[in-house]
Amino acid sequence: MKITHTLAAFAITLGTALILTNCGSTDKQEQEAHEEEEHHEEGIVEFTQAQYQTVGVTLGGIEKRHLSGLLKVNGLLDVPPQNQVSISVPFGGILKNTELLQGMWVNKNQVIAHMEHPDYIQLQQDYLDASSQLPYMAKEYQRQETLNKENASATKTFERTSADYNALRSRVEALRIKLSLININASDLTPTSIQRSIPVISPIGGYVTEVNANIGKFVQPNEVIFEIIDTRHLHVELMVFEKDVPKLKEGQKVRFTLANEVKEREAEVHLIGREISPERTVRVHCHLYAEDKNLLPGMYLKATIETSAAETNALPNEAIVSADGKSYCFVQETTTTKQAGPQYRFRMIEITTGITDEGYTEVMLPDTFDPGSKNIVLTGAYDLLSKMNNSEEEGSHAH
Q1: Which of 52, 55, 157, 312 could be bridged to 383 by S-S, CB 3.0 to 4.6 A?
Q2: Please, is 234 exposed, middle or buried when counting C-beta atoms within 10 Å of its C-beta (0-12, 13-18, 19+)?
Q3: pTM of the predicted model, to two decimals?
């Protein structure tokens, strides 16, 4: 009987122990499941004490900094209209001679070609004929004016003489201006100095970029024979999208490089256009800091405009991470203690970034974020993002 009671007591004790063991095991599993659920909570990542120390996480807050933004744009080299000329003649003629070739330099007022045509000779003759009659008509006008005042001549005769005299004066002046258009000085013209050819003169100094006629070719009136560009006054013409125009102002520094070059050149914003193109861009005219004869109009370039510095909220560049085309920073929330030791908990927060300068980036924070917080992860953000991505991949494989 005593043995039976002993066995019964042992059985009861063993059963109670098994029940307690099962309960403890269940509690532990539930706790581990809860911890696992917390670990995989979206936007949350945890570091162990060892990981925290290895990465060297440092915390801090938002800084107020003056950042100078860099606006990246495209453009080309160009010249002002007054430094690019198309040379033609107002009256058609035959190109008698020229020595111009593309790439040659010509000086201002240099004779670059000669044209000839019978009409040029006729124009000079007409001027000499009309101007030779002018002294006689002037005297006749004065005589008729005197007679008219003394009532010795009919008014009708005086009026006819006056009209003929004024018409001749107008004709002489018109012929003089026509001669000046073909570079003949009427004042020097005499019956023995009539020219069979006329000079073509360059109105600017510059490089010849186009030669559109050969010797002996008949050139139509106003047909372009030569094109000359003065490259000493090249400027940078930039195309800036309309959304970025408010950031611009005259005097801002511009750095640019030409295609297939690494050499950086400098300019400054001189004029900002007032018309938006169909591509929604505005032309910005910039002056070079230094002339360069190796530059040519039409060369394409890439440029950065240094926009005005302004005080703004900023974080170090290493505090900002990117994922799925968005920008984030991490904030340390709490530190908990588990069986493995302290656990450091971080939350990933989406932010909007702006201009970047000298290792800092402008940030726009959510309205719910405390701008005075000092728990922003300044170093170690990339390690946190990597840990989060790895945890998500492990969670996905486990499912």
Answers
A1: 55
A2: buried
A3: 0.57
> What CATH number is given to the structural domain containing 179?
2.40.50.100
Regarding whether 297 and 191 lie in a shared domain, the answer is: no
φ, ψ for residue 309, nearest 5 deg: -75, 140
Tokens 């300068």 locate to 357
Looking at the structure, tell me whether residues 284 and 169 fall in a common domain.
no
Range of 121's domain? 82-229
Q: Do 296 and 323 fall within a single domain?
A: no
Q: Closest Cα partner for 390 from 23, 60, 39, 28?
A: 39
C-alpha Rg value of the chain to the nearest Å = 45
283 and 332 housed in the same domain: no
Q: How far is CA 84 from the centre of its chain?
A: 22
CA-to-CA dists, residue 160 to 85, 118, 146, angstroms:
46, 34, 14
Give pLDDT, residue 394: 58
Same domain, yes or no, for 211 and 132?
Answer: yes
Return the H-helix or E-strand segment holding 176. Answer: helix 155-181
Q: Please state, in angstroms and rounded to a whole number, the distance separating the CA atoms of residues 178 and 73.
A: 48
What was the pLDDT predicted at 53?
86
Q: How confident is the model at residue 362 (pLDDT cuts 50, 70, 90)?
A: confident
Strand, coil or helix: 15: helix
Phi, psi at 277, each rounded to 5°:
-75, 170
Asked if the structure places residue 153 within a domain, the reply is yes
Are 186 and 294 in the same domain? Answer: no
Domain identity same for 190 and 280: no
Structure tokens at 144: 């008729």
Query: What residue type is assigned to position 50 of the chain?
Result: A
